[in-house]
Design a protein that fits this description.
Layout: H1 2-18, E1 34-38, H2 41-51, E2 55-59, H3 74-82, E3 85-88, H4 97-104, E4 110-113, H5 126-132, H6 143-160, H7 165-191, E5 197-202, H8 206-211, E6 215-220, H9 230-242, E7 247-251, H10 257-266, E8 269-273, H11 284-299
Helix pairs in contact: 2-6, 3-4, 6-7, 7-11, 9-10
Length: about 300
């Protein structure tokens, strides 16, 4: 049965290669560069920081789609098969990744599960655990966690291209020092903040909150599924008023209407944070500095 499935998949991929225009397309890898498939925007940016101009990155999840809602199409499997390295986050963020890898059937491909060595934050909601797994997958939004993920990407790129080892090591060292500097800067700033309550559109900033000893309260759960019950909204409004919350954060891929309504009821303003999920955004460090500056302003 497995043999039959493999033959069917091989035939499918052959046919698709002849009709590649039928799916989402990405430009071919630049000549002389390592072709890398990154699952979504954050993995693209971390890989970009380590790989530099030695890599050509194709992002699988297109703009406007949540990584955990994505379903690979035929053209995506072809691009995945052609990549020498595949970088994905893990922890349930890309439920489709393992099946896509099996279907693509690339040979000698280096697969990097970036969150492999990150200390996870358990999900508290039982329904979320049953549907998505045990842990909050938004690891890249914590600075210390992103540094660990960048280390995993560094090792994966070295395995795929040992001749570029020194370059990847140097890029990682530069990135790690920048992460440490940014973390120290905002630890000092946020330690002085009179408020420690970070109120967000959905529970994506748990690792950042852990890194900076903040408390995260959110409108929606970690996977942002469904509409929050009215009771939850009332409790959150009371929380915001009791803790004098000045700002309620939403994200680029969420409808801001709910956060704005909540902010209006709580006597707060609404602001946008980036979760780096979409491709083509600014670099990781610039985006996180912008996020932290907004959080610092909100808590002071």
């Amino acid at each position: 049965m497995k043999s039959y499935f493999k033959k069917e998949m091989a035939l499918l991929l052959t046919l698709l290669a002849l009709t590649a225009g039928c799916g989402r397309e990405a430009p071919p890898a630049e000549e002389g560069k390592i072709p890398v498939a990154a699952s979504f925007g954050a993995m693209e940016k971390l890989t970009e920081a380590i790989g530099g101009d030695a890599v050509s990155i194709s992002v699988m999840v297109p703009e406007g789609i949540e990584p955990h809602d994505f379903e690979p199409r035929a053209g995506d499997l072809i691009r995945l098969k052609q990549a020498r390295v595949f970088v994905y986050n893990g922890m349930g963020m890309e439920h489709w990744a393992e099946k896509a890898l099996q279907s693509a059937g690339a040979e000698n491909q280096v697969v990097v599960k970036a969150s492999e060595k990150v200390a996870p934050i358990p999900l508290e909601d039982e329904e979320e655990r049953e549907e998505h797994g045990d842990y909050d997958p938004h690891t890249w939004l914590g600075l210390s966690e992103a540094k660990e993920e960048a280390r995993a990407i560094r090792d994966g790129l070295i395995a795929a291209s040992p001749e570029n080892r020194d370059r990847f090591m140097k890029n990682y060292d530069t990135f790690a020092k920048s992460i440490d500097s940014l973390q120290q800067e905002y630890r000092e700033k946020l330690a002085k903040a009179p408020r420690k309550e970070l109120v967000t559109g959905h529970a994506a900033f748990g690792y950042l909150a852990r890194d900076f000893s903040l408390t995260q309260e959110s409108v929606e759960d970690a996977f942002a599924t469904g509409e929050p019950p009215a009771r939850k909204l009332v409790e959150l409004i009371r929380f915001c008023r009791a803790h004098h919350v000045k700002t309620i954060f939403t994200e680029e891929m969420m409808d801001p209407a709910l956060a704005r309504t909540l902010a209006s009821e709580a006597g707060a303003s609404a602001e946008t944070l980036s979760t780096l999920e979409e491709p083509g955004s600014e670099g990781y460090l610039d985006t996180m500095r912008d996020n932290l500056e907004k959080i610092d302003k909100a808590l002071n």
